[in-house]
Amino acid sequence: MIGIYFSGTGNTKYCLEKFVALYDRKVEIIPLEDAGTPEKMAYHKDIIFAYPIYYSNLPKIVRDFICENSDVWRGKRIFIITTMGLFSGDGAGVSARLFKRYGAQVWGGLHLKMPDCICDVKALKRTPAQNKQIVMKAEERIKSAIYNLKNGTPTKNGLGLLCHIAGLLGQRLWFYHKTQEYSAKIQIDSSTCIKCGKCAAVCPMNNLSLSEDKVIADGRCTLCYRCVNQCSKKAITILGKQVIFQHSVYDFH
Ligand SMILES: Cc1cc2nc3c(=O)[nH]c(=O)nc-3n(C[C@H](O)[C@H](O)[C@H](O)COP(=O)(O)O)c2cc1C
């Protein structure tokens, strides 16, 4: 078994780490953006595949990874974990349908509500105490999902027809376009930016680079919010205009 994940700001990585620690400590987990990931995946029949939900859909980087490696999924058994700030409907279902199309068996699905990572928009902001509660509840859900998996009755969150309809009507139909292409929305305030290069170093898309006097974005942002949450000068925004509360799940631990 191997764990593959995409995690913009740490929630999904955190959940997968917890999952694996309780299920089988020997399972390796690797980020999907690492160059060697598809090759490593090929050696394992069982895969735990984890990602965050964007607009009740797959982040573009995750969809591309699944489609670009379409020949790897045949014969695999995949357990899907998704994290979300509030609701997704069929968060696990959106990748499950692709995996099935490429010949994989979907083993189960687990939806985990986690703190919201969009740190430049006021909606869904909670106090640290509330976020801690949310993380603790997610950990409880992970424990019971593992109990079910070990007993041969894996959870099926987000995989049924009703979930599919809820995902479509809840958000995806209206926001479909937001995750179909990479984005050029990112803004870097050059009066605050100190050109430390951290944003460029952490970007999973290699979308950011340092020129002589500023950071340049190349229009390939997957909206993961890693740079926005990690910029020490709060100089980067995407959907909002000002950074309100930078997020790290490890603060609530
Ligand atoms: C662009 C974007 C869109 C999002 N859309 C949703 C959504 O539709 N529903 C939801 O519950 N959470 C949504 N979220 C919140 C994230 O899914 C959530 O915070 C997730 O746990 C982040 O995981 P990560 O830290 O591993 O990146 C969205 C986040 C971003 C950045």
UniProtKB/TrEMBL annotation:
One Pfam family named in its UniProt record: Flavodoxin_5
Listed SUPFAM superfamilies: 4Fe-4S ferredoxins (SSF54862), Flavoproteins (SSF52218)
This protein's UniProt keywords: Iron, Iron-sulfur, Metal-binding
Stretches of the chain forming a coiled coil according to its record: none
4Fe-4S ferredoxin-type domain location: 184-213
Domain of life per record: Bacteria
Gene3D superfamilies: 3.30.70.20, 3.40.50.360
InterPro entries: 4Fe4S_Fe-S-bd (IPR017896), 4Fe4S_Fe_S_CS (IPR017900), EFR1-like (IPR047964), Flavodoxin_dom (IPR026816), Flavoprotein-like_sf (IPR029039)
Transmembrane portions of the chain: none
Gene Ontology MF annotations: iron-sulfur cluster binding; metal ion binding
Listed NCBIfam families: ferrodoxin_EFR1
Protein name: EFR1 family ferrodoxin
Organism of origin: Diplocloster agilis
